[in-house]
Amino acid sequence: FNGRVRATEHGENITLLEYEQYEGMAETELRNLAENTVKRFPVHDLFCKHRVGKVKVGKTSLHVVIWSKHRQEGINAMSWFIVELKKRIPIWKWAILEDGSRIPSECAH
What we know:
The protein is α+β, with helices and mostly antiparallel strands. Helices cover about 30% and strands about 45% of the residues.
């Protein structure tokens, strides 16, 4: 899965998203969530990279790879993992509008 930055937020054109994290805690919680996902679903492994800082429109902000024996098991694990990531991992995003102003961006589950 590659999550890319969309060109609009709340109906406004944006130039980029800026991600902030609770350093140390975000990495630990992300690692715990990945391990939990592998235990919860019949998958072999999971890799996740979430960008922090400024990410321009069209660029990847979230990259997740899941190794599974069967496609549906991987899809189920991926869906659960991403929903949980957005709920539990202390990473916040801000939309930067074309005029340079910054607004909070809500996570859609």
